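Subject: two folds for Thursday's group meeting

Dear M.,

Sorry for the delay on this. The cluster queue was jammed most of the week, so I only got both jobs back this morning. I'm pasting them in the order they finished. Each block is the input sequence followed by the predicted structure tokens. Could you check whether the formatting survives your parser before we put anything on slides? The first protein is the one we discussed after the seminar.
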Amino acid sequence: MSTASRPRIGLVLGSGSARGWAHIGVIRALADAGIEPDAVCGTSIGALVGAAYAAGELDRLEAWVRSLRLQTVVRFLDVSLNGGLIKGEKLITFFREHFVDRDIQELGRPFGAVATDLARGGEVWLREGGVSDAVRASIALPGLFTPAHRNGVWLVDGGLVNPVPVSLARAMGADVVIAVDLNSDLLGRHLKPKPAARAKQGGHAAAVDNVLARIQSGMSQLGFNGNASADEPPPPMLDVVASSINIMQVFITRRRLAGEPADVLVAPRLASFGLMEFHRAASAIDIGRRATEAVLADLRTRIDGSGTATQR
């Protein structure tokens, strides 16, 4: 069918930190099926992958994330105690230098990112200005990444208000919305014992755990240890942060999707991935691909039901 008669397809890439590399597998599976979105939007890591895709940089991004090792991830952790544990500037500087750094409106397809106004708590849609600045604002996970300052406003991760921004895709003119929820199976995941997994990760993971343990120990000595006993120490600080974020995003996502449903929801099972395990890209990409393949029949029905063909 002609371009004019087919529906506009919107791809929505949700938040989820290191789990976000699954978005690459989603996009690859759609491409293999001959389905190419007309517009893409995302929150947090979804904004980063979405920006690369909209700019035609997905091949380079995938090659880079597949090359990541734990040592590389640790080098991006520019520690700060001002507004967050990680400033995030090393990661964004790398992104600017190696991938996309131009105006959003100059990208190959319409793109939007979601951030949160820290002062007012409002949802902010980033549809213009520099791509890397929009991504930096959208990934500013509270407590971990420092907030981003844009147009006189402090912005943090869009996952606080809209983890899977179907509403933005609709506003961008999408008739059929494919949404990717990375957080559907995460409740309680980070509080489960996993000594074997930590042991396998080697010295760099141990070093990060050591720093966090020393911070938590110091807080305990100052009396900030709640009701913990010597027999049952509190969970590690990063696990508490990760689980708290998971709880918030799961329930916000459910509420938002109930009121603003996608036409097709892709829900990769990613509970085994930690918040900062960016070096596990190959597994995440594969999981994203398989989850998308599982909903292709439904997606084709939705598109055909709109009176169009699935092929461009």
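Second protein, same layout:
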Amino acid sequence: MSQGFAHSQEQLRALAQTVLDHAAAKGASGCEVDVSEGLGQSVSVRRQEVETIEYNRDKGLGITVYIGQRRGHASSSDFSPSAVRASVEAALSIARFTAEDDCAGLPEARLLAKKSMDLDLYHPWEIPVESAIDIARHCEQAAFDVSPMVKNSEGASVSAQTAHFISANSLGFMGGFATSRHYVSCSVIAGEGDEMQRDDWYVTRRNADDLPDAKRIGDYAARRALSRLGARKLKTRKCPVVFEAPLAAGLIGSFVHAVSGGALYRKTSFLLDSLGQKIFPDFVQISERPHVRGGFASSPFDDDGVATHDRDVVKNGVLQGYFLSTYSARKLGMQTTGNAGGSHNLIVQSGRHDLKGLMREMGTGLLVTELLGQGVNYVTGDYSRGAAGYWVEKGQIAYPVEEITIAGNLREMLRGIVSIGNDIEARGSKQVGSILVDRMTIAGT
């Protein structure tokens, strides 16, 4: 597959400048623009037969204009000069009929990113479709080879994706870069009749050279599915719970949502006015590192063009800072933290144990490896999710469990973190190992 973009960075910059110039000529007091292009290839096989081959190529132009403190937005996938002018004028037309918002507007010029930096985010994977199919087949076959009890497959996939963009505004900011993201995944079904279980595994990397052998991914997916055979229900009880690393990232994500600007100024967060308060135990340290080379959420600037900086978010369990965009910061009477668009590489300091060590520390309790549903109330912090995993006794897995619900309150869960593992599985913007929480309610039979 050719990884060549249809437009160069210089062409995207010229297009962004055209938008800014046309907006100014038509009377906009301010303008910001994002121009992007992405392309990729994905293949999937099921039972060794090719199921899908997909090629994607897309582009987009997003324009926001201001007339004083009236805001208008328009977008287009057409980069022709006439379409670009029409999009600018559409945004201006919307702005003229929009109510004034005293928090609307561009960031302060002094906060904008002034320099570019190479964060090692772009590693195109020029893999022929035939080779991608072979990798997917080897991945799936490795799963079948683990045991004759692996009876079926939901497929194995290989994907290679690249993108680049330019963001600019009328205060003189213009920046952008290219990124890549590639993954291999496998999902299989073990057992037969009424006793069947599925599980999956995937690995994603910026650089395809860093992907593990696809056979290892298939093998691990199969072993996860097999380990769930014979799952039982639990009687309702209260006990400690370990969240496996990929799910622990979701737990930290719930914390991030609760201390993000949108939830705070709308007063829809259980962590209102929590700055400077103790949210976690003393040993919990969470830092934001936007400039990690190769990081999945690395960037020299946020979606507003504001420069990003390293910072401590939680220190010794105490919340040091919110996650604010320019707009949400103004709504709260504060200054942006450079988080328009989300967090940048949140790193939760690990403890000394891996997952097995956490289970030994827990002794008896529940290891959760799958969550179902979206039962989180961010206003109250109430947490209730369908779950599956393993019952642990004396630090060892005793048997798999299913059809249970775990429930608690996020404020109490965060305070009740006993230990954080070092088994980090880097997949998104949050880097955290498995998390042991002291006590939750398990609803079962």
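Two things I noticed about the second structure. The mean pLDDT is 95. The two ends are 53 Å apart (CA to CA).

Cheers,
T.
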